[in-house]
């Protein structure tokens, strides 16, 4: 009897696993693709391939009418430019990133990508050209390949490996029991926090977006992992427009331009060297950070 039922049991188990995986993927897709508060206009058109110029034109936004987060903010990011947002907790850095990916619409003013108001283009066409790397990258129960190719399900093995190489993860994948077919467990407990971030960068890489919006993870990495993440980030951002919500000044320092978000807008803007020389808020943040990180002051 046992041997008769075993395959059935296995089938039932498999089916349950399949259902769970399907539900997980559905949930994640839902999270990524359905912004909580925006609606696609019935006249929305597909965004043509962009060079990646992002313009904030006098943008005001608040989650609640009584509490403005950003007010009259204007900013132009050139194609290929990397801009890092720094500033105190709660200043609105992540909010700025969410507006670019159209998770919310401005209350006033407009955001344009290559001259197209975000509200005039379809969400799917926008999302294929803007890659988002969230603060807590998710991994789902599925193979490494599925996790990596999530944003581009038809990717070939060569393309997946190219992304793996770009972020320096070949060794990890080759060491895994079944290579790209290794099954990750939900929440990816088997993957370290540094590796998880690298996988998220590889995933973004594979999607080949023109614009990258990255909310930097706050988890502390050991120095080796941090250097690996920085190198992978450099590879990913090469030739792309990027907005980084930088929690580490070591990341901000590497951007073409830094904006200090505070008091509902951009309090300071410039390159690392310019801001350090001007002796304002960024310079003070940098001194404080350098002291705590044991790095030489400016
Ligand atoms: P941190 O450095 O802590 O990540 P941040 O600069 O990214 O901060 P935001 O996350 O953009 O700040 O938040 C800006 C303000 O908006 C904060 O006062 C925050 O409490 C509020 N806020 C953020 N998300 C929501 C939300 N979904 N609903 C209501 N208020 C929110």
TrEMBL record:
Organism: Paractinoplanes ferrugineus
Protein name: ABC transporter ATP-binding protein
Domain of life: Bacteria
Boundaries of every ABC transporter domain copy: 54-288
Subcellular location: Cell membrane
Part of the full-length chain shown: 347 to 644 of 644
